[in-house]
Amino acid sequence: MKLLPIMVAGVSFLPLRRAEHAVVAEDIASLLGITEEVATDVLGRGVIHRVIASGCHAKTVRHIHSTAAASDQFGLDESQITDLAISFTLCSMASALQKVPQECEPWDTTYTTHPGEDSAVRHPKEKERRRGRCLAVLHRSPQDWATFNTYFSDSTQLWLALTHQRHIELAQELYTNATQEKIALLQLLHRKAEASFATDAERDRRVEEQLTVSSAASKCSVAKACLSTNPSHSHNWSFRNWRTWSSASTLRKQNSTILWNPSRRVNASFGTKRHNT
């Protein structure tokens, strides 16, 4: 199927096939530093096609990305969007082989990397006057003015796509930081719990040792008290123990003598038999 050219912002283009659109979406995503999904969902096919129609357009898109990266703000003011729209318009004029007006040369990305910036002009009011003269020249041509209005809207969409991506990145960063803080807090609580458990275990061990020592001391005190209150009981107990030990010692000696003297063993056994009869 043959594709017919279409007019977009005053410039003739061929419509993109789906595969070609995927490649273009990938290009615009890489230029802006955003994902292809954001580029497709936020910008749409028309904007994507217009803003990278040529190398000049791609250069302007890269300028938007660098401006967003260097800025802490989440939006452009009207003058910045106007500068971008003028640069896109001049790119379309160059693609159509039109001469760039002299009043608009500071916005020509062929000669500058920062649209609207002129080292010779530093005062803000002078910059506004130069911007007004460029817009007046573009306004003389209905086609150029229509192109400018289209790119003014596209520049706003491009910046929205960038801020959308930045919001996503900011949310991810906040989530990561919050998660790391929670992990650090849990680790701190875990260390404190382990230290508390160790302290409790050491305290229990010391208490148990003290109870054991106290119990032994109490028993010794009771025994000492008993011995001190009844000395005769202690003497009788010692005498009985001595008699028991003496009898056991005598018996061991007799058994040892019989074991090593066979004649005594026989006599002892004979005497035992006679005694039994």
Features:
rod-shaped; disordered N terminus; two-stranded antiparallel sheet; glycoprotein; transmembrane helix; single chain; 277 residues; mainly alpha
Task: Summarize the SSE layout with pairings.
Layout (H helix, E strand, L loop, with lengths): L5 E3 L2 E3 L4 H15 L3 H16 L3 H16 L7 H18 L28 H16 L2 H88 L1 H30 L1 H15 L1
Antiparallel strand pairs: 1-2
Helix pairs in contact: 1-2, 2-6, 3-4, 3-6, 4-6, 7-8
Largest sheet: 2 strands, antiparallel
Name the assembly state.
single chain
Query: What proportion of the residues is helical, as a percent range?
Result: over 70%
Question: Which radius of gyration do the C-alpha atoms yield?
Answer: 52 Å
Description:
The protein has a domain at 6-175. The protein is 77% helix and 2% strand. It is built from 8 helices and 2 strands, in the order ββαααααααα. The protein has a two-stranded antiparallel ribbon with strand order 1-2. α3 packs antiparallel against α4. It is rod-shaped and about 140 Å long.
Quickly describe the structure.
The chain has helices at 18-32, 36-51, 55-70, 78-95, 124-139, 142-229, 231-260, 262-276; strands at residues 6-8, 11-13.
